[in-house]
Write a structure and sequence with these properties.
With 590 residues, the protein is α/β, with parallel strands linked by helices. Helices cover 28% and strands 21% of the residues. The chain folds into three domains: 3-127, Elongation Factor Tu (Ef-tu), domain 3 (Beta Barrel), CATH 2.40.30; 162-267 and 387-476 and 551-575, 3-Layer(aba) Sandwich (Rossmann fold); 271-377, no CATH class. Helix 7 (296-310) crosses helix 10 (355-367).
């Protein structure tokens, strides 16, 4: 729709001002004098037009990134009192800074001072924000004008880019809520088409038991929230197909999952001693970031190789050199004894390794006994289903880690991601996609040091797009996350920021006004940067339709009482609908 297509009262209503003539106007930024009786606020979308000799008219669209008001005619600061009393003539004038988002056709000329500026709506707004160029759009919330905002799915699913980085203050920035909403929207908006049914998501729960109820409706939903989802073309419903895994309780020989709020539908995950040795999992015991110059890393690799060669299954545990080991503690004690034995040391730790290096390895390994004994078991056997496997699991797999120590969390995350990445490499196919939602990314991929899990996350960030593994990472401080992980994220999201953190260069994609606003942003407000737009979008996303804590959990939806196949079929029906389409009662599976 061209600007001159406005006619009658509609044109007067949309007109908000004229291009300012007392400030420089450039093709990428200009100021607008707000017309009497009109207003512009931050994040409004506006458009103007420039006649160019010998060419088609140029439409210049942009976002309001700053607004100011001043007295024209005032000379001194104290004049404001005289003006307010009516003894000094002056006029209030508002002006808005516009950052250009689109020039069509691409003739980069500045708008002419005095040119009419309209507030963009409908097709004009869609074009200004490049939504018309997105063949597959993922709804992410609404703007200040109440209209939907979108992400280009091609920068989420690996077609042209991948990965999401979400930063903000803990407890205020709603990072996890936005991550799960983005996942929900990706799975349910129809952008994946027929692939939605096979697409998988792996969600690590690291704080409380908040993510254990994704398949329960939120009992705090009201009519306005339901309408907000419908406006985005989504049904206000929980995730339809969810599997939950939790570690066994410490000291419990039966392997009961260590959760307190969810009483059903939770499976235990652990690794047998045989798997620990055969799959070479020992390096993930040392998954805290460390100086790569430490010599004991040589011992780790030597012992790992020895365990893979020598350990054989034995009544649930393993046998090494005729010694049966029935628990992780037994295995640790055996390895430490072999490394400290002068005759056995060359075979286990290496011939050129000194006592100090062995002791450094032994101290760290012994310290892991209490923390990992519940995850590496010789007493529970190798029954199927004890390892997290997204292929044989539900649409969304939640792995609960909140009751584990930091070392155990790193071990579980590292080994699980290693397994999933190796599986994707074996298939050599990008689809079906696997979305990985991981909070506290700065703990697993810190800027300094190296560790096995950091190397896996780097591999996902740099190569995951080609494998169909998409990382949705969240952290309080992007400045403390490995730079290559953050820079490889096509989509960057910011919620409420700490003032010191906001000044870091990692947030240079935020204009000055948005960076200042991030210091006071309310929960539910996110600043979303994507490659096709030069200015981040300020998004309000709706309240979760699924329970985010036990007190919000409503009754189990009907689909969970059906078979998992039936639930997946219902999911496919809803996911295949186009954004904005109306859902019938038969199509809503909850």
């Amino acid at each position: 729709m061209a600007l001159d297509s406005y006619s009658g009262p509609g044109q007067d209503e949309a007109l908000v001002g004229r291009v300012l003539g007392t400030a420089d106007a450039t093709p990428l930024q200009f100021w607008v004098a707000v017309a009497p009786g009109a207003y512009l606020q931050l994040d409004d979308v506006v458009t103007t037009r420039r006649e160019v000799p010998g060419r088609d008219p140029v439409t210049i669209s942009g976002l309001v990134t700053q607004v100011r008001a001043r007295h024209e005619g005032a000379q001194f600061e104290s004049d404001v009192f005289a003006i307010a009393d009516g003894t000094l003539p002056a006029q209030v004038q508002e002006a808005a800074e516009i950052t250009t988002t689109r020039v069509d056709p691409e003739v980069y000329v500045p708008p002419t001072p005095g040119a009419v500026v309209h507030r963009a709506a409908g097709d004009l707004r869609t074009a200004a924000l490049h939504f018309d160029a997105m063949s597959r759009r993922v709804p992410i919330g609404t703007g200040r004008d109440g209209a939907p905002l979108y992400l280009n799915a091609e920068f989420l699913d690996g077609t042209r880019g991948a990965h999401v980085s979400i930063s903000g203050v803990s407890g205020v920035a709603t990072k996890t809520s936005f991550a799960t909403f983005l996942l929900f929207s990706m799975l349910r908006s129809g952008v994946l088409g027929g692939e939605a049914t096979n697409t998988r998501a792996l969600v690590f729960n690291v704080k409380g038991e908040d993510l254990l109820f994704l398949d329960h409706p939120n009992n705090r939903l009201d009519e306005s929230t339901v309408d907000a989802y419908l406006q985005l073309g989504l049904a206000a419903s929980p995730f339809p197909d969810v599997a939950v895994y939790a570690p066994p309780r410490a000291g419990d020989p039966s392997g009961t999952p260590d959760v307190s709020s969810r009483l059903s539908g939770v499976e235990s995950f652990y690794w047998t001693l045989e798997e620990f040795c055969a799959d070479r999992l020992l390096p993930y015991v040392f998954a805290d970031a460390d100086d790569e110059r430490q010599q004991y890393t040589m011992v780790i690799h030597a012992v790992t190789a020895r365990l893979a060669r020598e350990a054989t299954p034995a009544d649930g545990g393993v046998s090494i050199d005729g010694t049966r080991l029935g628990s992780y503690a037994d295995l640790v004690d055996f390895v430490v004894a072999q490394c400290n034995d002068e005759q056995a040391r060359p075979f286990w730790a290496g011939s050129a390794v000194g006592t100090g290096t062995v002791n450094a390895f032994a101290r760290r390994l012994i310290a892991s006994k209490r923390e990992l004994s519940r995850l590496v078991r010789g007493d529970l056997g190798g029954a199927s289903g004890h390892r997290v496997n997204t292929v044989d699991s539900a649409q969304v797999t939640v792995v609960d880690l909140h009751n584990l120590s930091e070392r155990a969390q790193r071990f579980a995350v590292g080994v699980t991601l290693k397994t999933e990445l190796e599986r994707k490499e074996r298939t050599a196919a990008r689809k079906p996609l696997l979305f990985v939602v991981l909070d506290e990314l700065n703990k697993y991929a810190p800027r300094e040091g190296t560790s096995p899990i950091k190397e896996i996350l780097l591999d996902i960030a740099e190569r995951g797009r080609s494998l169909g593994v998409i990382l949705i990472g969240a952290q309080q401080t992007a400045s403390e996350v490995e730079r290559r992980v953050v820079t490889n994220a096509s989509v960057k999201v910011v919620g409420r920021l700490d003032p010191a953190e906001a000044s870091r260069p990692e947030y240079g994609f935020l204009p000055g006004a948005q960076r200042a606003r991030a210091l006071i942003a309310k929960p539910g407000t996110m600043f979303v940067s994507q490659p096709e737009l030069p200015v981040p979008l300020v998004v309000q996303f709706p309240f979760p339709a699924w329970a985010s804590r036990v007190e919000e959990a409503g009754p189990m939806p009907r689909s969970k009482r059906r078979s998992r196949t039936q639930s997946a079929d219902a999911f496919a029906v809803v996911g295949a609908r186009a954004p904005g389409a109306t859902l019938t009662d038969e199509e809503i599976p909850f």
